[in-house]
Structures are given as C-alpha cells and as structure tokens.
C-alpha cells in the first residue's frame, strides 16, 4: 500500500526519474541531481523526513510532535520566490479549502530555505497571503540544513549579476507525512489542488476508520 501511494503521488513526474536509482549513500542533496532526488522520494530508497524544532511565524517554538494525529503537508521555499512557491502554495491553499471540515486533520507547513532573510515577521506576512491555517517555520541555518538534508531538499543560492537580484534554486516537492510523522509520498511541483484532494481524502478516511 505504501509503495503504491508513493507511486501515485509521484507518477506524473517520476517516469523520467525512475532510471536513476543507483548509489546515493553519503551524498548530500546539494550534490545530487533533481532526477536522483525525485527517484529517492518516489521509490522511498532512503528514509525521508525526521524530527524538527523550529520557530513559527509568531516567534513560538514548534516541533513536529505538535502536529501528531494530523497529516502534514510540507513545502520548502522562501518568501521572495517569484513564481514556483506562490503557485504551489496556492494549490495547497486550494486543497485545504476543497477538503472543507476535513482540512482540520491536515496541517500545511511552509519551511523557509532562507532563514537569514525569512525571519518570523516576514513569514507571518507571507503565509497570510495564502491560507489562515498555513504555518510558516524558520530557524538557524544549521537547523534548516539538517532538516532539508533529512527531506532530500536541494537548494542553493543563485549567482545573479546584481546583488539585489539574488535568489535560491530549490526543489519544489510537497511532502505528505502521516499522522505519526512518517513519509507517505510527495506531490510534484505544479500539482493541482484537485489532485491533492484526490490523494489526501483516502488517507483521511483511513484515519477515521481507526
């Protein structure tokens, strides 16, 4: 069942990556290609996810344990991302709206990959643009590096011609984590709200049946 779920979440983007499943041990996400990372996520070749303690957009400490009993929908990005991040966060917000009352059992999280710039006050203004239940999280750079490594997230500073144009290249996967914090699968960038709901609803039904 778990393998089928990962395949279902990654199917649209995973076909091209499936041939890349060879030696990964000991390599950080920044040293891997996007296809290699997708292959790991799609086929669950390595553990994905892990515990964290960060600061939320209200400057309060939050840990993964705070969200136990709910599914987590996690997105890594940064607040001045001009295209991919807003598009995917709008899809997440749309999925939450479409789930209706059942959305109370899903916690969307936005974790910055630029903690030096995305302080709590910046995150607070940003997450308000998308959904009232979206929680923004930041922390010390070493904490973010550790967490992105656990989630197999690639990110790196770009080298623009002007300092004011600096940005961050990053993977744009949306991670679905179980109520126990374990990795269930991912949504590729550009996944629609309807497709998210299609995958999330059976998971919520399974929670209700227990």
Number of domains: 1
Major sheet: arrangement of strands: 2-1-5-4-3-8-9
Order of helices and strands: HHEEEHEHEHEEEEH
**CATH third-tier fold name:** Glutaredoxin
CATH superfamily: Glutaredoxin
Instruction: Specify the overall morphology.
Output: globular
N-to-C CA distance: 16 Å
Strand content: 15-25%
Uncertain regions spanning at least 5 consecutive residues: 10-27
Radius of gyration: 16 Å
Oligomer designation:
single chain
What CATH first level would be assigned?
Alpha Beta
The total count of helices amounts to 6
What is the number of beta strands? 9
Structural class: alpha+beta
Q: What is the typical, i.e. mean, pLDDT?
A: 81
Biggest pleated-sheet summary:
7 strands, mixed
Helix content: 25-40%
Strand and helix map with partners:
Blueprint: H1 2-14, H2 34-43, E1 53-56, E2 61-63, E3 71-77, H3 84-99, E4 106-112, H4 120-127, E5 135-138, H5 141-150, E6 155-157, E7 168-170, E8 174-177, E9 183-187, H6 193-209
Parallel strand pairs: 3-4, 4-5
Antiparallel strand pairs: 1-2, 1-5, 3-8, 6-7, 8-9
Helix pairs in contact: 1-2, 3-6
Write up what this structure looks like.
By secondary structure, this protein is of the alpha+beta class. It contains six helices and nine strands. The protein has a single domain (2-209), classed as Glutaredoxin, CATH 3.40.30. A seven-stranded mixed β-sheet has the order 2-1-5-4-3-8-9, with helices on both faces.
